[in-house]
Amino acid sequence: MDQDDATPTDGPEPREDTRQEDFAQHLREIKDLFARQTRVEAFVHNQDMPRHELIEQLVHKQNVAKLTQKLERLHAADIAYILEALPLDERLMVWDLVKAERDGEILLEVSDAVRESLIETMEHHELKAAAEQLDADELADLAPDLPSAVLEDVFRGLDTEEREQLRAAMSYDEDAVGALMDFDMVTVREDVTLEVVLRYLRRFDELPDQTDQLFVVDREDHLRGVLPVNTLLINDPETEVGAVMRRDALTLRPEDKADTAAQAFERYDLVSAPVVGADDKLIGRVTVDAVLDYIREEAEAEQLAHAGLKEEEDIFAPVMDSVRNRWAWLAINLVTAFVASRVIGAFENSIEKLVALAALMPIVAGIGGNSGNQTITMIVRAIALGQIGEESERRLFRKELKVSLINGLVWGGLLGVVAWWLYADWRLGAVMTAAMTLNLMVAAAVGVAIPMTLQKLGRDPAVGGSVMVTAVTDSGGFFIFLGLATLFLL
Which option is the CATH number for 319-489: 1.10.357.20, 3.30.390.10, 3.40.50.300, 1.10.10.10? Predict the structure, then answer.
């Protein structure tokens, strides 16, 4: 029986009342301290009194003491939340007040963009000390953001087992199970009794986080099964592990997609799952907290990609950093908006003759864009859940076209009646209905085609989807509506 030497990152445990406080409350308290310091210092500075500097220093020290006391009681995740929500100058002040032994844990919790801003302010020895606080799997998460010199120093300080674990963790793609697994787990043999296992567990100061089961291995570390903790507790201590262990436990491979693992955890309500190599040797485990972090990060990335943002952005980042993050899809938007304007320009004579067209055409384009975004959101979600294959493409096209046809006839018909009533022209109402229906069908086709095509090309199906759909439905909606109006009304 053995356990990996790595132990969870040490740090002050949050008090129970702190756990229950709202994140926003912590942030308000920190901001209040900064605001109070600014007001007091301004007041003192404006008063005609001796020793301004001494009084300002005393006020500053008092606020620093209060901030430090507050930060010491907070969990690393709470501090990360506060750092992300503060402007750069206040963020760096809070970061300087955090105890050095918590740096590594907090760097793991903050967003990538904010982590970069913190690392830029740290000296070589500070980064090295922060990295040395982390387990191999945690260090692998932080490694891409560390300067190469720091990473080399940390690597040289690891023992042989930790080096191999770090190499293994860094060798997998970000979306692979290997990137999620950790090496901190408890293993036992199948030929010992439960009483022996219980005595063995009592030797630990604490069990690894998310320990809901022990992993049963042979002397070559081949996985034989799992021993759930509840099974260990409720059975006769004289029973052997092999008699009560589960041999059919779900196992993962390090090269499996992380999405597959996330779906398995959700479907089977897992807390942890073993990761085995090609020879069925146990090499690590995946826990539910790592899966939840992955799901959250993927959801945020998908949301950003859907809006055409290249990466997560620090809301207090320098102006030019934000400009570079946003310009690409804005440039594409500019092109598509120009195309839409030229479509409108091609029908200037029609619009001059029938002013009602100018008032009604944004409705056709807007409803089409909304419908297309609904479709693309459903398709991207289904792709993420693994519910769509190439054989489903035609069926999805037919289904979405039927949905858009019905919606077009119903809502387009309603708008057609309104247009008829407003402008006393039944032909205009008929054109409105036809244009709405056709544009919704175009939106449906594009909403299916874009993510499916991106998936075939090996790209993220969510990237820029809404931008592209809106571009097509705007230009298409204007062309269809104005074209039909020119043919049948003028």
Answer: 1.10.357.20
- b/e map of 276-297 (b: 16 or more CB within 10 Å)? bbeeeebbbbbbbebbeebbee
Q: CB–CB of 468/444 below 8 Å?
A: no
DSSP state, residue 217: E
Q: Are 217 and 223 in contact (CB under 8 A)?
A: yes
What span, in angstroms and rounded, lies between the C-alpha atoms of 317 and 64?
A: 25
Query: Could you read off the pLDDT of 408-452 as tens digits, one per residue?
Result: 999 999 999 998 998 888 998 999 999 999 999 998 888 888 888
In this model, does residue 3 exceed pLDDT 70? Answer: no
Query: In angstroms, rounded to a whole number, what is the distance separating the alpha carbons of residues 381 and 312?
Result: 20
List pLDDT tens digits, range 357-415: 888 888 888 888 888 888 888 887 777 766 776 667 788 888 889 999 999 999 999 99
- Does domain 186-305 match CATH 3.90.180.10? no
Domain ranges of the chain: 2-174, 186-305, 319-489
SS3 221: coil
Residue 223 DSSP code: E
- What CATH class has 2-174? mainly alpha
| Pick from 159, 162, 133, 161: nearest CA to 146 | 133
* pLDDT, average across residues 309-319: 68
User: How many Cβ atoms sit within 10 Å of the Cβ of residue 54?
Assistant: 10
